[in-house]
Sequence to fold (430 residues):
Amino acid sequence: MTVRVRFAPSPTGELHLGGARTALFNYLFARHHGGRLILRIEDTDRERSRREYEERILEDLGWLGLAFDEGPYRQSERQEVYSGAARRLRERGLAYEAADEAGRRALYFRAPRGRDGSFRDALRGEVRFGEVRDFVIVKSDGSPAYNFAAAVDDIEMGITHVIRGEEHLPNTGRQVLLYRALGVPEPEFVHLGLILGPDGRKLSKRHGARSVREYREEGYLPEAILNYLALLGWTHPEGREEFAGLEELVAAWDPARLGTSPARFDPERLLYFNARHIRRLPARRLARLVEPFLAEPLPPGREEVAVEALREEMRLLSDAPRLLGRLLGPVDPREAAGRLPAGSEEALAVASQLLRERWVGGLEDARELLAGLRQWARERGMGAREVLHPLRVALTGEDRGPRLEYIIVLLGPEEARKRIERAREARLRA
Fold:
């Protein structure tokens, strides 16, 4: 049997974290079993469904890297399939027409008396329901009701496993009865635990949860989001938590490690994973990713040096303008002088001289310059910090920050010497 699973979003809004996790777990399940992943757009809600939402959902799934083997199939384009299934139920006496709650004519499913919609869930075992009452399967406007369309599509598409959130449990009893009435064994069900906010309530915007698109626009990486979502309801057998991307997740994935306990969403934890993934990105790709967040391009020819200087402090791609501004922005010589220790004037003079004599323009030149400063300090019985800390303060006005060789390359020799000389002169006048 070929495993066939589906992700079936409704285009009534943006793709949020809960939906993204469902898509991810279906993707991992399909790849783990060598199966197929189907994308189905459940757009039977004519009033709320919008094609622009569908397009945005598809874009977000593509950005996450979740590729589908089939689809998208749109329920709005499958009316003949639902009409045929409804006709078969009517012919068997399992469906009848009656007025709905608003007095409009609709088609109802005749639920079998004395039988409930109990089913077996792969994670929860036997899930029991009370007796299911008759329910609408075709609405008065001729469109299929949600449970009917979902069940018919699962049958027609050969879905073998339905992996979705716990909030769908109440629908499953009705869908199970429809599978059986149409003469098809129900698929295996896997209902994932809920995602809760830090306060234990259902995840919402008040907990800091946003749509996938909003996370993208804020500067999150798809690898970080996928990494974090994978841990909301699944655990690695060895407790591993960091995965470089989808390939590593697929290799590590074991559906037996799925759980039913609610997972708590922690915005700070997601931010932590994002920072970790930023640090492991190749410099060239990171430079390309931060460009849209910058008002001006990175310094030509020094793009990779720039992101190397920024990455240790970046938690979001959108941090780049602030961090770059802190590095390259103006430094008040008097403020810098006020933070320089006594006796640092000579070390700054040597740094300025080395810049003039040894600088060619590359990262290796900057490293050689710093090595020369350390050598000068050793010859005088001084520690490296006694010369490097004044240099950092003169160049950036800060006590801490990126490695000095990156700062020197970014500023360039002329600007670096100007800052050193201004800070030194201000110190001499103090």
Remarks:
- The longest strand covers residues 36-41.
- The chain has a mean pLDDT of 92.
- Residues 363-379 form the longest helix (17 residues).
- The chain has 18 helices and twelve strands.
